[in-house]
Design goal:
Elements: H1 9-21, H2 24-27, H3 29-38, H4 45-60, H5 64-83, H6 94-105, E1 112-113, E2 120-123, E3 126-129, E4 136-137, H7 145-164, H8 173-178, H9 197-210, H10 218-229, H11 234-237, E5 250-252, E6 258-263, E7 269-273, H12 276-288, H13 315-335, H14 339-345, H15 351-361, H16 367-374, H17 379-386, H18 391-399
Parallel strand pairs: 1-4
Antiparallel strand pairs: 2-3, 5-6, 6-7
Helix pairs in contact: 1-4, 4-5, 5-7, 5-9, 9-13, 10-12, 10-13, 10-15, 13-14, 16-17
Organism: Pseudoalteromonas marina
Pfam families: Phage_integrase
Keywords: DNA integration, DNA recombination
Length: 403
């Protein structure tokens, strides 16, 4: 049986106390029984759990969003280590971490649920486990780059903390990440004005996590998805005298592919393709607004709505939404010890999201397709900005030319 190891941030200090004074059985009976069973094969399971609580307490004090993200990643890592590898998390070697990455890419379906489930609920003063809870959400596709990046970040921070606390002697995560066959390798030549992987992970991930506390942040989340996932400019999302972006501008062709009709620079219309991942966030946003999951052809609802008032949002208002998410991410990066990334994020603007999305997708999409979705008049513009050629090698070969 799979058991949730960690409750909410509010309950964490009680879990720590119960584990320390041996009263876990009276307050968390299913968890206590589970730890006893695991201890038959992993004798250090209770010690492992105490350290996990210590780590989450340290990182959760200032940021509940960070707590939730690290809890989810590390909880399933612990369960895999105990139940599948049958080792303490501090006994795992490089090949074990690699095996866990393989498991992350294709988890056992028994470890996944079809919906978000609560973990524990009070029942006459006892925290009772939800038997339907699972560590993963069931998905048809394999783990995304964003999911894998979040996993590597959590494990890396955890083992760095373990080294400082002298709980372990090595951190194998960086070398596993460097040689992972599942991650898209970025060029060493960085294009200006883009977010790094970890910066984007925090911008999007922290906003998504905070939606649980403040549902109105779903609007921020959808805006981020549009700017990065569809390569949009803020002006293309905003209310303008000659154009009002509305939900009916989403349309589906006869083959089932979705598009968004956009008015870009020079009042030129273009149809941007929607990824399957984006469609899921579109559904999520519309359900938050009380709309049907998918748009209708006659729907006049604004694309990005105002909380108060009628109509769509202006450029300045949308920019504020993005900046709000940037601020949340910057603080979370600082809390987690990523000072350089936080400082660099402080200089970012909303337009960086368009560059970030295009730069990332340029590694896998045909140049012509990318250029059309970006709205570039010439394919050479896309090539010049987003295709990362080896500039140094080209310069060396060019230096040998004769007049």
């Amino acid at each position: 049986m799979l058991v949730a190891l960690v409750d909410t941030l509010k309950q964490l200090r009680y879990q720590i106390a119960h584990l320390d004074d041996g009263t876990l059985n009276s307050e968390y009976p299913e968890l206590a029984t589970f730890i006893q069973q695991v201890a038959l094969t992993v004798t250090e399971s209770e010690s492992d759990l105490k350290f996990l609580y210590q780590f989450l307490y340290v990182y959760g004090r200032k940021s509940e969003a960070t707590y939730s993200r690290f809890r989810n990643e590390l909880e399933r890592f612990y369960l895999w280590s105990w139940l599948i590898a049958e080792k303490s998390v501090f006994e795992l070697k490089r090949e074990d971490i690699e095996a866990y990455v393989d498991f992350m890419v294709e988890p056992d379906r028994k470890w996944a649920s079809t919906s978000v489930q609560w973990r524990y609920k009070d029942e006459q003063g006892i925290r009772r486990l939800n038997q339907n809870w699972r560590p993963f959400m069931l998905k048809e596709s394999t783990a995304s780059q964003q999911t894998l990046s979040a996993m590597f970040t959590a494990l890396n921070v955890f083992y760095k903390f373990s080294l400082l606390e002298e709980k372990t002697f090595a951190n194998f995560v960086p070398v596993v990440k460097k040689n992972s066959p599942y991650l898209v390798v970025q060029s060493q030549i960085q294009i200006p004005d883009t977010l790094s992987d970890i910066q984007w992970e925090y911008v999007f991930g922290v906003t998504r996590d905070l939606c649980e506390q403040n549902p109105d942040l779903e609007r921020n989340l959808f805006t981020l998805a549009c700017l990065k996932g569809l390569y949009l400019r803020i002006s293309e999302l905003s209310e303008r005298p000659q154009w009002s972006p509305v939900m009916s501008h989403f349309w589906q062709d006869n083959d089932g592919f979705w598009f968004l009709r956009i008015m870009g620079k020079g009042n030129k219309l273009r149809d941007v393709t929607l990824s399957d991942d984006f469609v899921e966030y579109l559904k999520r946003y519309r359900l938050y607004r009380g709309l049907p999951a998918l748009p209708r052809v006659d729907e006049a609802e604004p694309l990005v709505h105002k909380i108060r008032g009628q109509g769509g949002m202006t450029v300045r208002q949308i920019r504020r939404l993005v900046q709000q998410s940037f601020d949340y991410a910057q603080q979370s990066l600082l809390d987690d010890g990523f000072k350089d990334d936080a400082e660099q994020l402080g200089a970012a603007t909303a337009h960086w999201l368009r560059h970030t999305g295009a730069t990332h997708d340029a590694q896998t999409r045909p140049l012509k397709h990318l250029s059309e979705d970006l709205g570039h008049a010439k394919i050479a513009t896309t090539d010049q900005i987003y295709i990362q050629t080896n500039i140094k090698e080209r310069a060396k070969s060019g230096a040998k030319r004769k007049i």
